[in-house]
Amino acid sequence: MRIKGLWLIVILCAMLPLSGCWDAKELNRRAVVAGIGVDLAPGKKDYFVSFQVIIADEISGKTGRGGTPTMVYSAQGRSIMEATRKVSMLVPRQVSTAHTRIIVISEELARQGISDIVDFLDRDSDIRLTAKIYVAKKEARARDILSGLSAMGKISAYTLAQKTDISSQEYSSHYPIEIDDVIRDILVPNSGPIINGVDILGNVEDARKKSNLEKTDALGLLRMSNLAVFKGDRLKGWLNEEESVGLVWIKGKLNKTSIVITPDDLGEITLDVRRSKTSMHVSLKDPEHPVVLVKVTAQLSVREMDSTIDLRDPAALNDLETYVNQEIKKKMKAAVDKAQTLNSDIFCFGQTLERQHPKAWKQLKGQWSDLFPELTVEYHVDSIVRNSQMRDRSFKYDMNQE
C-alpha cells in the first residue's frame, strides 16, 4: 500500500507542470493579423503601421453579415511597437501577429532605410522569420496593398504570398524572399537584399472596394512587380523585367521561364525553360583583378513557332541553341550591369571569392566597393533543346514548300 501511495504522489507531482497554456486566449478574443504594412506618417518622422485583420465571421460564411473578409486598422507612432500598441484603441480584441504571412514596406520608407523595421521583425517573438517581405512600388502605399481585395482567395495577404510562390515557379522574374533572407543579405559587405516589389494594376481606390469583386475585369488588382535593389538597408533602384530574370538566373533560383528568339529574322520562336542549373567560379590569374565565371546549363522545349525552320535538321537545332545562349547571356549581363551601376553586390560575388580564395579576399575586402563596379564577369551558357512538344516543324514549313 505504501508503494502505491508513493506512486500516486509521484504521478500527482508530475501532473503539476501539465496545467495547460498559462497565457492562452480564446480565438474569439484575438484579432488575427494576416499582413503588416509600414509607411511614413505625413510628418515624415513617425511610422504609420497598418494591420490586415481577418474577420472570422465573414470567412466562415455562417454568421457573416455580407461584409469584407478582412479589415485594415492603422496607427501612428515613433516606433513600430508604439504604433502596434496604439492599434488597441481601435480593435476590440488583442492583436495577434503569429499568423502574419506578408510584410509590406512603402518605397518612400525603403529609400530612407529599413534597419529599424528589420530589427523589430527579428526581435518580435510572434512574427515568424518565414514571413514574406515586399516593397510597395510607385504611388501605392503599404496600406493600399493591404486594403486590396482578391477574387480568388478571401484573405488578400495570403493570396499575395501564393502569387509569389506560383509566379516564381512559372515565370521566375522573382523568387520568394523572407525576413531571414533580408537580414542575412544586409550583413554582406558592399551588398544588400533583393526584395520583391508589389503594386496595384488599375485604380488604387477600386482595389479596396467590394464591388470590384463583382466584375469579371477587376479595376484594381494586386500585382507582383519587379525586384527592388538595396545597398545595406536602403533602396537604391529597381530592376526591369529582363534584369529581374537575369538576376534570378545568376542566383540559381530559376524554375521555369519562357524565352522568345528571332533567328535571322525568320520569325519568332518561343521556348520553355524546363530545367536550369547555375554555378559560379572566381578566377584569380591576376590577383588584383578577379574574374567571375557564371556557368549555366539549361534544358528547353519548343512551345510556339512563327517560323519555317526545319526542326528535323540537327544543324537548325544547333543554331537554335546558339540563339538561346545569347538571349540568356543578355539577360544576365543586363542584371550585372544594373547592379554595378548601383554599386551593390546583390549576387554576392564577394562571398564567392571569400569561399574559394579566402587569402585573396583578405587583401581585396577593403577595396571591394571600388572593384565591384569594374568587375569582369564572363558567361558560359550551354542550352539543349530536348523536345518540340507534339510536332517538330510547323505546318507553315509545308505551306512554304508549296
TrEMBL record:
Keywords per UniProt: Germination, Lipoprotein, Membrane, Palmitate, Signal
Membrane topology type: Lipid-anchor
Subcellular location(s) per record: Membrane
Top-level division of the source organism's lineage: Bacteria
Domain Spore germination GerAC-like C-terminal: 226-388
Residues of the Spore germination protein N-terminal domain: 23-198
InterPro entries: GerAC_N (IPR057336), Spore_GerAC-like (IPR008844), Spore_GerAC-like_C (IPR046953), Spore_GerAC_C_sf (IPR038501)
Family statement: Belongs to the GerABKC lipoprotein family.
Protein name: Ger(X)C family spore germination protein
